[in-house]
Amino acid sequence: MAAPRPHWLFGDQLGPHFLDPRHGGPDADAPVVMVEARSVLARRRFHRAKAHLVLSAMRHRAAELGDRVTYVRAGTYADGLAKALGRGSAQELTVRHPTSRAALEFVRARPGVEVLPAGGFLVPHDDFARWAGGGRTLRLEDFYRWVRVRHELLMDGDEPAGGRWNLDHDNREPPPRGRDTLGAPEPWRPAEDDIDAEVRHDLDRWERDGQVSFVGRDGPRLFPATRREALSALRRFVTYRLGDFGRYEDAMLAADPVLSHSLLSAPLNLGLLHPAECVERAEAAYRAGEAPLNSVEGFVRQIAGWREYVWQLYWHFGEDYRHRNALRHRAPLPGWFLDLDADAVTANCLSTVLAQVRDTGWTHHIPRLMVLGSRALQDGWDPAAVTDWFHRCFVDGYDWVMLPNVVGMSQYADGGRMTTKPYTSGGAYIHRMSDLCGPCAYRPTDRTGERACPYTAGYWAFLHRHRDRLAANHRTARAVQGLDRLKDLGELLAERDRRDGDAPP
Fold this sequence. Notes:
This protein has 21 helices and seven strands. It is mainly alpha-helical. It has three domains: 7-116, Rossmann fold; 125-188 and 224-317, Serine Threonine Protein Phosphatase 5, Tetratricopeptide repeat (Alpha Horseshoe); 323-498, Orthogonal Bundle (DNA Cyclobutane Dipyrimidine Photolyase, subunit A, domain 3), CATH 1.10.579.10. Strands 3-2-1-4-5 form a five-stranded parallel sheet, with helices on both faces. Strands 6-7 form a two-stranded antiparallel ribbon. The longest helix is centred in the middle third of the chain and has 25 residues, at 293-317. It comes from Actinacidiphila alni. This is Deoxyribodipyrimidine photolyase-related protein. GO terms for molecular function: lyase activity.
């Protein structure tokens, strides 16, 4: 009997389901190859906490696999495979479908490689292609309902649990006034070990030697790096934090950036958790009367709806999607943004969120979209550069994650292929959904003057700059009509042009 082919395991395929032959995995007992390629970190300035998390997770997985794995540290993937298999080796190799186009092209260019089906998602590519065929409009709500029915998630027979598919209306409450925190039980946090110490030592040495350069801070590791840790984080969220998740899903509090969010995106995107087990545990909590439907539906929508949707669109839209720039935004990212220099920013909302990214490599979806992304959109920053920034600076950021999220959702650079309107707002939205405006030097209601809110002024300037396009969109036409009622529009635009971002003089 022929020996099983070696299997190359990427650093975001770390859960046991990626090696299970019953679920599209490699040959039973196949030897495993893992490559830690320094070139990945050397090419770009990643967040230090992200580099730490990925390397820690890879090395922990290698320790679990023991003698089954050949773990190679090399300059490049090609060098690593040569060390593991023998330079010039024609040995056959299997690999799970990678999560980026660049990685897929690399493995397909190597002779003797069989690419196995993608793992870690609910919907196979072929099934999505059939669903999307025939000129269908690719809207999230339709896709989400299809996934719910197909996987029998939160369904009572043929109907959605509770009689409604979408409970967003119940999940958009502002934070409770007069409170600095939501008061939710603390999220699960890991205890670092010798592997983390080794990773930190290596990163320090590489940075000291000039081999790599990072942004952000590497405090204690905050996210799971092993399957056991990921399951603990999932259990704690479902048991103690899921109940209040939905209600305040879109809220922001300066002193409580986590609120009741799950913090599961990082272990999910490392492959330590499978989305099915996440949504099934949440539904079980609802069926047992331990969590309200609105919270469970909101969580299921994020995992089985949005996450699956983004993954599929990344492949469906093709590589040209990366270069979309329908609004022709070309401005470079400011230095303070690239360096995560929160202290150089006057607007309290932006400074607070940027500090959260600097310190942890994470914020939840509303600060990402309505503070960071909205600022980039209003100021006309190059969407490709914004995509790269989100990819590098977030612990859960990968090419497949950030390309549709930024180009399509955040920056509207695809002109509406993914969403029906640009997502940006004035300061009133931030004021309503957070406690960030109170101590700010600016006022959310002011469009002009020394206390003019950059988001309020920026919102109207953005509408004016793209008036013709947005007037033809039924979702934004009314807002564009409001431009004609602004008696201070000329002053607003002139003052906006004179401003040098939020950096103080």
